[in-house]
Amino acid sequence: MPASHLDRAVGAVIGSAVGDALGAPFEFGPEGAFSARFPSPGEGGEMCGGGGWDPGEATDDTQMAVLIAESLLECEGLELPDVFRRFQRWAAADPKDIGLQTEAVLSSGDP
Asked: Where, in this chain's numbering, is Mg(2+) bound (predicted)?
């Protein structure tokens, strides 16, 4: 992969992780929760925690995206069985957050 493509891919993963961490405290919260906590645009400026998340902590979405990225790099392309095995190991390690359906699929024992 040309360096510019790799840089863009890394930037996309990092940008996604930052966005995930910024939104994690408000995930599944009521409409307007962010505006209620930060009523004046431009004030604060630091990542906050909440909803069970520490400031800057990313969710299962980012954790799984990193596993896909690692697999793509190590396998030099998409190898679905490798991605699935990584997901299964991650789920078995009792992550802080995992969706109910995701956990059911990854812990079912089915290939």
From this structure: 59-61
Local structure of 50: helix, strand or coil: strand
Q: Is 59 annotated as a binding residue?
A: yes
Whether pTM > 0.70 for this model: the answer is yes
Residue 61 assigned to a binding site: yes
Helix axes 60-75, 3-23, angle to 10 degrees: 160
* Residue pLDDT, tens place only, 3-33: 788 899 889 989 999 999 988 888 888 888 7
Question: Is residue 59 in a domain?
Answer: yes
H-type alpha helices, 24-109? 33-37, 60-75, 80-92, 100-106
In a domain, 79, yes or no: yes
